[in-house]
From TrEMBL:
GO biological process, one term: response to stress
Domain SprT-like residue range list: 6-156
Domain of life according to the entry: Bacteria
Protein name: SprT protein
Matches recorded under PANTHER family: PROTEIN SPRT (PTHR38773)
Amino acid sequence: MNELMQRLEACYQQAESHFGRRFERPEVRLDLRGQKAGIAYLDRRLLRFNAGMYERHGEDFLQQTVPHEVAHLIAHALFGQRIRPHGPEWQSIMRDLFGLPAQRCHSYSVPQRRTTEYLYRCACPNPVHFTPQRHRWVIKGRRYQCTRCSQLLHFTGQAQQNLR
């Protein structure tokens, strides 16, 4: 976290020198999970980073992802909230200030995660797979009909684990 904070501070100092003004520092959290490397919450001045991706891709993460998210906050501070997230204002900060390509997405490998599917049946020969959320809704009383035969779908009592 110390290196990340140092890189963040270096980005802000570079921006302050370039634009001749001070920028408020954001709160930083390493609690993001999933497929995103980082997220900038503009109105809350909050940056969330994916700790797993930072751990696996340390140097590239510091060189690309941290400036990418800082550029969002700087663009917001300079141009207001009516700009597009990866629009020309953000792109110019990435290119002209940080000297980095204005890439919208990272290319880090994202580990597969295990998911559960719940099997439901009707009169049709093949089972219908429900997500955990949809299965919870059924438990709470929601009912679903098959789109082919129009019969109510009933849980078989079976679930299967998959990698996604």
